[in-house]
Design goal:
The complex is a heterotrimer of chains A (326), B (450) and C (293). With 326 residues, chain A is mainly α. Chain A has a domain of 204 residues: Orthogonal Bundle (MetI-like fold), CATH 1.10.3720.10. Chain A is built from 13 helices and 2 strands; from the N terminus they run αββαααααααααααα. Chain A has a two-stranded antiparallel ribbon with strand order 1-2. In chain A, β1 and β2 form a beta hairpin. In chain A, α3 packs parallel to α7. Chain B is 46% helix and 11% strand. In chain B, α1 packs antiparallel against α2 and α10 runs antiparallel to α11. The two termini of chain B are 30 Å apart. Chain B has 2 domains: 169 residues, D-Maltodextrin-Binding Protein, domain 2 (3-Layer(aba) Sandwich), CATH 3.40.190.10; 221 residues, Periplasmic binding protein-like II (D-Maltodextrin-Binding Protein, domain 2, 3-Layer(aba) Sandwich). The N terminus of chain B is likely disordered. Chain C has a domain of 182 residues: MetI-like fold (Orthogonal Bundle), CATH 1.10.3720. In chain C, α5 packs antiparallel against α12, α5 packs antiparallel against α14 and α14 packs antiparallel against α15. The chains are: A mainly alpha (326), B alpha/beta (450), C mainly alpha (293).
Chain lengths: 326, 450, 293
């Protein structure tokens, strides 16, 4: 390493933030150097695009093609046009899965963001053992999805679970969490939140620390309360990070799979007796690998994609409005 | 390889497909890297490993001892026995079908419940013809109906029977005693000659257990439903969801409606613990005494003893079932056509479905032999089940299967069963109102039949 | 804004003028509560792994360790049909391979997008952003499965490695990180010295983006360690990954709670140990990565 570049702190950035390359490329006249300048960038990005073409783009197109067929794994493939789509749109089971997915997403994400904000704010204070607290709330992230689901499913057990035991101390009757949508949604949402709230808090904390403290000092001088400062300064300044966090949660939330599958215990992909917590991802797997209706599953996958796009648009416009009055 | 006709079309549809197909074609000409797999595809050199995949709760197929013995005696054919899941219809079966269709990944020998035999009979391409390994000569060992079910639509033998269900009623002796009910199996059997009497006994039991945390009389809807259906089926043309022309009759067969109504009445009377069978909570309740009775085909005894564990030995017992004889379940073993060691697999299959294998399974998992020589063997006829208070299970089940006529189960029986029973579970647990349950039940079954 | 930031950095985490930076009792209670909630399920997992099945179903459930860990571990390893050890090894191989690939490919592409000028770069980067929204797990399930069937790779771990070798998030993150971590002047200076693009990559970029690579590696490793949907479809029970192996334990031995919990605990233990050992660096890296990316 001839050039000693130590880890740059944000302060070292002096130039404009957005810069797409050297201002003066290709001063060297020799052909080899020019070729290097012209061709190497493509060479550098090509591994990504080649692999993505095979394992990303090709499946996308192929799924679209399959979705136009009555397609069996090893059997007949009959072209049916848009039949799968029209059938799906009229399929109550599909919309039930959409409702579950969106429902779980909403009741998981909103408390998660609020809690993450609160935690980040708390961690941003002067307190002894900061690292210890940060590590502590990040710990759930390094456990595995399936492990979390196993533990929580046990905790939510109807007859011998700790949560029902705890609730029984307050006279609450034993709840069968899997039995109704609302309880199953809550149970699954807590699994998601338990694992991700700490991570999001750390990300938000990092962003919070880049907010200039002078802003707060000025506000303090004006007599603004801590709460007011939080909502008027902190939250608006976090907007880009919030957008990022919501973006990632949206994709994760709308493709939810492992938690509800493990919550059911057996991978039937049914999500309860009446599909109380069957998500769209489970619906797709059930159609493709339980009922072997590949075309139908592929059509559902495309509708899921559409759902994600809509979800991102809604969230984006919603998050953008945070602190919009600033 | 993707078939060529499709390739052509594809290339026209999406440019990027070309890249992928090029890569697929490259891949197929290269030797397959053997990363990780330790399955049947290993080199031909001895010893051969034969994998056996089964399903079922508790002791499931009960092959631990039989396999141990085989492996000790056959150093060149080593058997690996793996029970994959508690659930057949909605987990084991689709996963097996996936692998059969994909052409790889299935075990050398697979267990199949009677409920899917209609489906498998109609798909001869999936399984090896056992006739070529001389197993046709086993015909005399089996009751005609059990044998016929293992013959596919082309007239080829593809599966041999393991066990046969029969029907009894399991009960928790200790809970019965606490509730002031009789505890000896003869008296218990006399207590409930029919389902009405069973209901009375249940009400008496529940009156003695009024508390919220107290045990319930019955486990849940599934077992009771299957017991009644297996009793009523033979009275109604010997069919369940499908008639012999494979037409769905879920809404027309009185046997189905009777079974449904029986479940509904017990559920409405609050006698069920609202547990779906073959779930963790159900298993836990077997262990902890969450309910007092459960319909028990022979193989269910193995489920109970396996789920309850040795420490609960003697707490469960077995009595005659209300409403007379019936058969629920019973399975088969088959060899997928994709198996690379069909000949060796056939030897193992012959052993496991032979007298010796059947007797070992009966001892271990109470799975009552379907083979006649095993049934007649004193080791079966005189066997007492230690876990169930030394109940003479050989005698009990021997009597119960004597005039047994298995139901005709259509090609999509397993799918319809799963969907319909889900509705029963929902009804029992309260997510489907009793008044709407029958309509939903028929709807779900119809949808599953496709 | 940069200037202000610099001053804040130099003046420590808070200036004494504003008391809102002191942790009040409420803050402390919140944090302590969060800590307990975070740790409890993991603690519970390990407690259950030291108990017997009977104790596991007690009400109230046990909250202190018992003395049965040894026998539970023995039983777990003796339960051949879960292939737990195979699953662990497979997961390590898969996660490591994928992590290496994603980090290398993302760093290369990130460098190009951040510091090199070439025709179509904006469109290409934009397309990567778009692909991040594609639920590949779901949309790819049918075609990728058919692809693996045709290649004869079902049941083998390369079927789980290949589809994950690249990841749009990685490229996006490394682009952002490189843009901010490496001053353009350094790249230009190296150019003037006659360094080729690859030399600049090796000597200027790589040393500077190492923290970003570490964060990306951590996130990618965890993501692949947690992969569940695709392995559960394309792999067979006798050659699982760690997640499907636990799912198999849950299915076939669901009544043996303590063994299931022992397996679960064993599956998180490696990551927890790494986390505790490198906790400071991980938190630091995540926070730095978050600000730069």
């Amino acid at each position: 390493m001839t050039l000693n570049v130590d880890t740059p702190a944000p302060a070292r950035r002096e130039g404009p933030r957005r810069s797409s390359g050297p201002r003066n490329p290709g001063r060297g006249g020799r052909g080899l150097a020019r070729f290097d300048l012209r061709a190497t960038p493509y060479f550098l990005v090509s591994p990504y695009f080649l692999l993505f073409a095979v394992f990303g783009l090709f499946p996308l197109g192929y799924t679209a093609w399959v979705s136009l067929h009555d397609w069996e794994l090893a059997g007949d493939k009959t072209f049916t046009g848009l039949d799968n789509y029209t059938e799906l749109i009229a399929d109550g089971a599909f919309w039930n899965a959409v409702l579950n997915t969106v429902g779980i997403f909403v009741i998981a994400t909103i408390p998660q963001l609020v809690l993450a904000l609160m935690l980040a704010n708390a961690l941003n204070k002067r307190i002894r053992g900061r690292l210890f607290f940060r590590l502590g709330i990040l710990l759930p992230l390094v456990t595995s999805v399936v492990a979390v689901a196993v533990v929580f499913t046990q905790l939510y057990g109807r007859d011998y679970g700790m949560i029902n035991w705890f609730l029984s101390l307050f006279g609450v009757e034993a709840i069968e969490w899997q039995n109704q949508s609302w309880s199953a949604w809550i149970a699954i949402a807590t699994m998601i939140d338990w694992r991700w709230t700490g991570y999001n808090a750390i990300i938000l904390l990092a962003a919070m620390q880049t907010i200039p403290k002078d802003l707060y000092e000025a506000a303090s001088l004006d007599g603004a309360s801590a709460r007011r400062q939080f909502w008027q300064i902190t939250v608006p300044m976090l907007r880009p990070t919030l957008i990022f966090v919501v973006f990632v949660s949206t994709i994760g939330g709308l493709t939810l799979f492992a938690e509800p599958v493990m919550f059911e215990g057996n991978p039937t992909m049914a999500g309860g007796a009446t599909g109380q917590y069957q998500t769209v991802a489970m619906f797709i797997v059930k159609e493709a690998f339980r009922d072997f209706d590949m075309g139908y599953a592929s059509a559902a996958a495309w509708l899921l994609f559409a759902l994600i796009l809509i979800g991102i648009l809604i969230n984006y416009s919603f998050t953008r409005r945070i602190g919009g009055k600033k | 390889m993707l078939n060529t006709k499709r390739q052509g079309k594809l290339a026209a549809v999406a440019v990027m497909a070309a890249t992928a197909l090029a890569i697929t074609s490259c891949g197929s000409s290269e030797p397959t890297p053997a990363a990780g797999g330790d399955g049947a595809s290993s080199a031909a050199a001895a010893p051969v490993t034969i994998t056996v995949h089964t399903f079922g709760g508790g002791e499931n197929f009960g092959y631990d001892e039989a396999v141990k013995k085989w492996n000790a005696e056959h150093p060149n054919i080593q058997v690996k026995y793996q029970n994959l899941t508690d659930r057949f219809e909605d987990v084991f079966l689709p996963q097996l079908l996936q692998k059969l269709q994909a052409g790889s990944g299935a075990a050398d020998i697979v267990g199949i419940d009677e409920g899917a035999m209609g489906l498998m009979k109609a798909r001869p391409q999936f399984f090896a013809d056992l006739g070529q390994f001389g197993l046709e000569n086993r015909k005399a060992d089996f009751p005609a109906a059990k044998w016929e079910n293992g013959v596919n639509k082309d007239g080829k033998l593809f599966a041999l029977g393991t066990d046969i269900g029969g029907m009894t009623m399991c009960y928790r002796k200790d809970l019965f005693e606490k509730a002031g009910l009789p505890t000896e199996r003869e008296e218990v059997g006399k207590l409930w000659p029919d389902w009405a009497a069973f209901m009375e006994a249940g009400k008496k039991f529940q009156a003695a257990n009024p508390g919220k945390g107290d045990p319930k009389f019955l486990d849940g809807p599934n077992t009771l439903y299957n017991v009644v259906l297996s009793q009523e089926g033979p009275k109604n043309g010997n069919i369940a969801y499908f008639d012999t022309n494979n037409q769905l009759v879920i809404d027309k067969n009185p046997a189905v409606k009777t079974a449904f109504d029986t479940v509904k009445s017990f559920s409405e009377a609050g006698l069920t613990a609202k547990l779906a069978s073959f779930t963790p909570e159900w298993n836990a309740a077997i262990k902890k005494g969450g309910f007092a009775t459960m319909g028990c085909p022979a193989w269910m005894l193995g489920v109970v003893s396996g789920a309850a564990g040795d420490e609960n030995k003697g707490k469960w017992d077995v009595a005659s079932v209300p409403g007379g004889a019936g058969n629920w379940g019973g399975s088969y073993l088959a060899i997928p056509a994709q198996s690379k060691h069909q000949k060796e697999a056939a030897e193992v299959l012959n052993y496991l479905t032979g007298k010796e294998g059947h007797i070992a399974a009966f001892k271990e998992a109470a799975a009552f032999p379907s083979s006649l020589p095993a049934q007649q063997d004193p080791a079966v006829a005189d066997l007492k089940n230690e876990f169930f208070n030394d109940a003479p299970t050989g005698q009990i089940f021997g009597a119960s299967v004597k005039d047994l006529l298995p139901l005709f189960l259509g090609e999509k029986h397993a799918q319809v069963k799963t969907a319909a029973e889900k509705v029963l579970e929902g009804m029992d647990k309260g997510s489907i109102p009793y008044a709407e349950a029958w309509t939903k039940f028929v709807e779900a079954g119809t949808k599953a039949a496709g | 804004m940069t200037a202000i930031q610099t001053r804040r950095r130099s003046s420590g985490p808070a200036s004494s003028a504003n008391r809102i930076w002191d942790a009040g009792p409420l803050t402390k209670v919140t944090l302590a509560f969060a800590l307990v909630l975070s740790a409890f399920p993991i603690y519970y997992m390990f407690i259950m792994a030291t108990r017997t099945n009977d104790e596991a179903l007690d009400t109230p459930p046990p909250l202190l360790p018992g003395g049965h860990l040894g026998e539970n571990v023995e039983r777990l390893l003796a339960t051949e049909d879960a292939y737990f050890a195979t699953g662990l090894i497979n997961s390590i191989i898969i996660s490591t391979t994928v992590t290496l690939s994603v980090v290398i490919i993302s760093t290369l592409a990130g460098f190009a997008f951040a510091k090199l000028r070439f025709r179509g770069s904006k469109i290409l980067l934009g397309s990567i952003l778009l692909t991040m929204m594609v639920p590949l797990q779901q949309m790819g399930i049918v075609p990728l499965y058919e692809m693996m069937v045709n290649l004869g790779w079902t049941g083998q771990i390369q079927a789980v490695i290949l589809p994950f070798l690249v990841n749009g998030f990685g490229v996006f993150m490394m682009t952002q990180y490189t843009t901010q971590a490496v001053p353009d002047e350094l790249v230009e200076a190296a150019r003037v010295d006659g360094a080729s693009t690859m030399r600049i990559y090796a000597n200027v970029i790589l040393p500077a983006v190492r923290p970003g690579m570490a964060v990306l590696a951590l996130l990618t490793f965890m993501q692949n360690w947690n992969e569940f949907l695709w392995p559960s479809i394309v792999l067979n029970p006798d050659n699982p990954v760690v997640q499907t192996s636990i799912a198999a334990l849950n299915q076939a031995h669901g009544t043996d709670y303590v063994m299931l919990f022992t397996g679960t605990a064993a599956s998180v233990l490696p990551l927890v140990i790494v986390f505790v050992m490198f906790g400071r660096q991980i938190v630091g890296g995540l926070m730095e990565g978050a600000v730069k990316a």
